[in-house]
Amino acid sequence: MLRHLWMRTAAEVFARERPAQVLVSGDPKHPSACVALYAPPDSPGTLRLLGALDLGEPADLPARSDEALADLARKLWRLGVPVDLGHLPTDTRLISQLRQQKPAFAMIGLRTRDERGLPALALEGEWSDPAMAIGRRRRQSLARKRRRAEANFGKVRLQMIAPGPETATEDMDLAFAVEANSWKRRAGTAIIQQPRQLEFFRLYGQRAAKLGILRLAFLEIGGAPAAVHYGVEIDNIFWSLRVGYDERFGSVSPGDLLMFDLVKDCVARGVSRFELCGKDADWTRRWSNHSRPIAAVRLYPLTLSGFGSLAGDLTALGLRKTRWRQSKRGARA
């Protein structure tokens, strides 16, 4: 249900100019594997994995068997156009099947930067007691920050909301406003600065609210929202899809305080896993106990569009490397 909701919403928001193209292995009513692609306006002649690159999310394609993945890989190559699969886990079975099914002279672009993605926290074993799991030093550090927050701003508390469709838009807008009161606005990555992402998460959130799975976790300090997680909860798994904090409270690390309180709340309610999603970052490494190496994956078929796309990508890569070397020389000077 979670994947269907995500893909349906992504198709309506990102593929409105041209309908999404769905490749299916097996019975279309009960597919063994499938992938949805669309033609992005900013990259003519290329197909892009739906709901991944536009939302900054590494993806993996579920399949019932290796045979289904092999069939899907053959169908991807038969498209005869470049395909941008965004970031995939390097250990995914799809990559090995794409290599095995690759036609002669076609190419797979696999760019790695020692990146990892899909960080997650299994709420079992030592994490059944989060206070003990984080260790004495971090536990004491968070306790000091909580005391400082209460001394300087007021009471600290977790507010966990499962909005219904009547209040979902108002609650989500509050969450997006909190995210925007930080470095993300200066970097231009706050969701309110990205119209299509904002449209996606509002529509996705409304639909999740109707299903009763939308979750908004706020850390309130002195009655004001200081940090937020926007996510969904299904099958005892919490999926954190957007996070943010108000930098007015930055001195007391509201993001870490919220994460600790939220993990405790999830454990108390019997949630078995906390998915942090996206790519690994410094803050996710402090909390996750599992992630996967990822790589940017592109398919270049033996066609004019395939060679043209490869040439364009190699040129862009060369320019990025040149700028990087120039910046290094400038820094040394």
Automatic annotation (TrEMBL):
Residues 136-283 form the BioF2-like acetyltransferase domain. InterPro entries: Acyl_CoA_acyltransferase (IPR016181), BioF2-like_GNAT_dom (IPR038740). Gene3D superfamilies: 3.40.630.30. It comes from the Bacteria. This is BioF2-like acetyltransferase domain-containing protein. It comes from Maritimibacter alkaliphilus HTCC2654.
